[in-house]
């Protein structure tokens, strides 16, 4: 059963006169489902590139505050002591969080629609309005391509890399091309992801972006199995964030398979045996 929702995009407005802005978050409210939540990015590098250097710590504090404040209001909706007069739409909610003014952080005019899964819709909106524009170069120690090199060497050695081809998965609201995929009975996509980042928040943010991306792709008529080739952080103080990131990834529909870098040789051997048994 579908329920009505409204949403608003959080923006960093650099200059109110020219109205230049960058999307940095999304909030969604579905009153009948008693659902209210928001997702905000903590990455600020693109803002500094597009406009001018900004205070990164201050930016992260603001976005974390807004996200947590909306989350708390959402919890209040489901508490035993709910709002005496529940907000009718997202604009009434956001007026309690961030009153409209000429500050740099502003919410957009509300949009809306109907959904059977408000959380899924929130993730889809975040992918559409924010995630696709976020520069993944922010805070990177290693890129995804660097992680792929670790897996590529044994795949070449086992002479199976030639069987991996690009495959675009198309969903109603989003599409994504996996560079390394093969078809058995169904498509199998092998995606390298670097979590060797400099900050714990960056690690978890990246996992959340992948959760949103693949959740949206799950609506595709062409089903696929996802194998995540993971590059973990080298710093010991980031291991907890890495475990949390994998917990987030475990929420992806279909439960993707995780392959760590130290399993690259075994992975290549297993893929070789699979291809040999089932053919290309």
What's the structural blueprint in terms of helices and strands?
Blueprint (H helix, E strand, L loop, with lengths): L2 E13 L4 E11 L4 E6 L4 H6 L5 H22 L12 H8 L7 E3 L3 E5 L2 H12 L14 H14 L7 E6 L4 E9 L3 E8 L5 H18 L6 E8 L7 H11 L7 E4 L3 H15 L2
Parallel strand pairs: 8-9, 9-10
Antiparallel strand pairs: 1-2, 1-4, 1-5, 2-3, 6-7, 7-8
Q: Determine the number of helices (DSSP H or I, runs of at least 4 residues).
A: 8
Tell me the series of helices and strands, N- to C-terminal.
EEEHHHEEHHEEEHEHEH
Query: Distance N terminus to C terminus?
Result: 42 Å
Helix coverage percent of residues? 25-40%
Task: Characterize the largest beta sheet: strand count, sense, and whether it forms a barrel.
Answer: 5 strands, antiparallel
Overall structural class, as computed from helix and strand content, comes to alpha+beta
* Unreliable segments of 5+ consecutive residues: 136-140
Beta-strand percentage? 25-35%
Give the C-alpha Rg: 21 Å
Mean of all residue-level pLDDT scores: 85
Oligomer category: single chain
Number of strands: 10
């Amino acid at each position: 059963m579908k329920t009505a929702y409204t949403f608003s995009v959080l923006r960093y407005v650099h200059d109110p006169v020219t109205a230049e802005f960058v999307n940095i978050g999304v909030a969604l409210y579905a009153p009948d489902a008693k659902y209210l939540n928001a997702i905000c990015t903590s990455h600020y590098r693109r803002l500094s590139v597009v406009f001018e250097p900004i205070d990164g710590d201050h930016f992260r504090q603001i976005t974390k505050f807004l996200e947590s404040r909306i989350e708390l209001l959402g919890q209040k909706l489901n508490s035993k002591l709910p709002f005496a007069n529940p907000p009718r739409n997202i604009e009434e909610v956001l007026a309690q969080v961030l009153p409209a003014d000429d500050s740099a952080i502003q919410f957009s005019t509300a949009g809306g629609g109907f959904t059977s899964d408000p959380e899924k819709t929130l993730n889809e909106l975040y992918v559409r309005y924010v995630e696709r524009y976020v520069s993944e170069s922010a805070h990177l120690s290693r890129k995804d391509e660097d992680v792929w090199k670790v897996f590529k060497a044994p795949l070449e050695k086992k002479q199976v890399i030639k069987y991996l081809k690009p495959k675009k998965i198309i969903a109603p609201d989003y599409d994504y091309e996996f560079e390394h995929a093969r078809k058995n009975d169904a498509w199998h996509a092998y995606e390298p992801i670097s979590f060797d980042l400099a900050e714990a928040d960056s690690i978890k943010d990246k996992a959340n972006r992948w959760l949103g991306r693949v959740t949206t792709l799950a609506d595709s008529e062409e089903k696929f199995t996802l194998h995540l080739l993971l590059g973990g952080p080298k710093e010991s103080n980031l291991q907890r964030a890495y475990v949390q990131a994998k917990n987030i990834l475990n929420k992806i529909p279909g439960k993707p398979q995780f392959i760590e870098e130290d399993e690259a040789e075994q992975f290549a051997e297993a893929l070789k045996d699979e291809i040999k048994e089932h053919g290309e």
